[in-house]
Amino acid sequence: MKHRAWSAVAALTLALAIPLSAPAQAEMTLQTLSAPAEVLAKYPYPFNGSLMKSTFTNASTVVALAVKPDTGILNDPFTVTGSGLTPNTSYSLAWNTTDAAWLGEVDPTTANFRGTKYTKINVEMGKVTTDASGAFTFQTKVPADFGNTHDIYLVKDDVAVAKGGFEVMRSVSMSPTKGPIGTPITITYTGMGASLYTAGAAINYDNDYMGQFLALWTRGTGTAVIRAAGRPGKHFVHVMDAIEYQYMNILQSPVPHALGQLKTFTVTKDPGVGALKPSMTWPMTVTPAIKERTTISTTGDLAPSTSAVAKLTPDHGPILQKVKLNVTGLPADGNVDLVWSTVVGSRVDCPVGSTQCWKFNGIPMSTGTVKNGTLDAELTIPDNLGGYHVVQVKSGNKVLAQASYYVQHTMWSIKDKNGKDATLGVGTADVAKAQKSGASAEDLGGVGVGTYNFKAGEAFTITVRGVGWTQFDNTMAVTYDNSHVGYGCGFNSNGYMAIHMVATGEPGTHIIDLWPQLYTHQPSFANTQYGMVPLLSGGWDSPALALGYTVPVIHFAINVTK
Predict the structure, then answer these.
(1) pLDDT tens digits, residue range 142-153?
(2) Among 249, 271, 293, where does a domain finish?
(3) Which of 226, 249, 271 is the C-terminal boundary of a domain?
(4) 394: helix, coil or strand?
């Protein structure tokens, strides 16, 4: 994508932006964001996946089941035996576990992250039949499921006649174990728990905190993909239970077995910055659980009894993309206004305790001519905030039809000193330019010229467009050589984010990654857990996915020169 400064036309468009009346806002309610079908298919319920009643009635006398061994990690074999039962009788073995989900809120004005939810469930392990002496033996393996203790019930007609238990322990794997700088490293932590204090884990790289990963939707199997960083030689990757940050005296906790593990990765060589082009890793494709979208009009300015249907092709992508709008079922021929529905505002100046510090805004896109109740038009997506927006077809102040467009994050070309496209998203820092009177929107980011080469101690910038305004997409966390250094926000800068950093370390290649982050500072429910740090598992276990927000991991690299 070509580098473009905001033109006078674009500036005028913003100046003429017409305010949109906010749709009537019903009181927001908590919504359970269960695992999408695509995630559930990859991480199904354990054993045969057959759900049973959530609770059982206990028999007057409950027999003890023998479980040997009674602890183990994923795929370890174990045996359940019972005796003293009714002879020649069929039973079901039930495995007590948990369903974990995110909680969220969504309405036309915003989308919020509100924590997690855990529900106890029972899953059938299998069926057994006692022999003539009233005994049975059942052999199985530790399933891919949440860690800690699971009750095991022997059930007949929803009555538990026997009970035992098994404790799923943690295990850590890492692959590969060696490779050049930038090598993707997959870290898998199985047996993670299903509670606030056991559902998260953190990664430290060479004793530098990197970020957190979770295993709610993935049923205790947490996965993070990081990149190898540092000079050639051995580097140490430490995985341990965490709420954002590692719980470092775990032996004194209620789960002293949750020790995680220390792994070693060997960096074999520095491939050079030219081998590590800027790139983006997108989350897995899922079907959103919530149909509502921000900026959609539901009442107020929505034309009464309108039956018109609008469609955008494509309906997602970067800013400045050309899209085709097709509308059918419009009530009359003539001209209509095509308006981009968005928001303006900021959380920074928001009073403490307030949950909404922005308002609707409409940016005129063009006019269209309706013929025989149909409208076809080609539009250019504005340089605007990321996330869900709506193209509205309006007659006066009334919305006749509307179609959603999702603005994705975008890396931007930066020019060199000769005015030629030089880099994607990486350039020198020029703070003085931002401080000039009448500085352009581009200059306000403090971006200089495009280059990947910097001296130690030299300031540089990382730039991204299409950053959103909700708790799911208004910020991104930043790591430098796998060390968490802070975050950036693009809300009050119209989706444009320029992160200022300093080149450090020995001469050679150094990596910078931008990660999804759940924004939980005031006024956005400041005490909500798992916020304000890199969400390393955001590609497959994040509340954002349930709402259709696809925040990528964005990869950069620089060369520190001698």
Answers:
(1) 999 999 999 999
(2) 271
(3) 271
(4) strand
Same domain, 107 and 243: no
- Length in residues, the chain: 562
Domain that holds residue 159: 34-168
Q: Tokens representing 400?
A: 């006749």
What distances in angstroms separate CA 241 from CA 249, 320, 545, one per listed residue?
10, 43, 23
309-313/208-214 β-pairing: unpaired
Q: How far apart are CA 329 and CA 543, in angstroms?
A: 36
Mean pLDDT calculated for residue range 232-253: 92
Does residue 116 contact residue 215 with C-beta atoms inside 8 Å? no
Cβ burial 135-147 (10 Å sphere, 16+ → b, else e): ebebebebbbbbb
Domain membership of residue 29 (yes or no) is: no
Split into its structural domains, the chain has a count of: 3
Q: What angle do CA 138, 142, 143 make, to 5 degrees?
A: 110
Measure CA 317 to chain center: 17
Domain assignment present for residue 378? The answer is no
What does the buried/exposed string (b/e) look like for 254-275 if buried means 16 or more CB atoms within 10 Å of the residue's CB?
ebeebebeebebebeebbebee
CA torsion 316-321-327-332 (nearest 10°) is 140
- Across the chain, mean pLDDT equals 90
